[in-house]
Every structure is written in structure tokens, then in C-alpha cells.
Description:
single chain
Amino acid sequence: METSENKILSVCGTDCGACYCYGKMCTGCNACEGKVFHAPEGQTCAIYDCTVNGKGFHSCGECDAAPCDIWRRTRDPKYSDAEFEENIRMRMQALKG
């Protein structure tokens, strides 16, 4: 999903274009249909799977339950609790525009 600011947003609101992995080890979750490098091999990211395959949405921004427990279980371990909550807030803000 591209925004008016030319950000490449994943279904969970991550700006793929701003990620150091994008274009190197990752094509972005939309391009690889959720089979991102950090998901177990051959498996789809749980957030992508729920949003696109399960609910038929383009992004979590369309879901009234977001951010949900799947988001909380799909956490980058580099974040502290406070950083993770801020990351969720920023991603939701990006999705809601």
C-alpha cells in the first residue's frame, strides 16, 4: 500500500521503505505476500495472514480490533516495552492517516 507521501506501508503500518532490510534481504511484506525474512521459513507473518488472508483487508487500519493480540505477539525483541508501545502507536497513526 503506497501513501500520498510515497511511503510503502505494510499491512501493519510499518514503512518498508524506511527499513534497513528493504531492498536487501526483504522486498516488503506486500510484495512477498507476508512471507518475510523474519517469519519462520515458508510461513506467512501472522499479522499479514490475519489481515489479508483471514479478513480480506488491505491493512490493519480497516480492522476495528487493531492493534490486537497478534500485534503484541509479533514483537521485535530490540524494543523496550515503552518503545514497542510507541511503535504500535505510530504504525496505527500511519494506517489511519
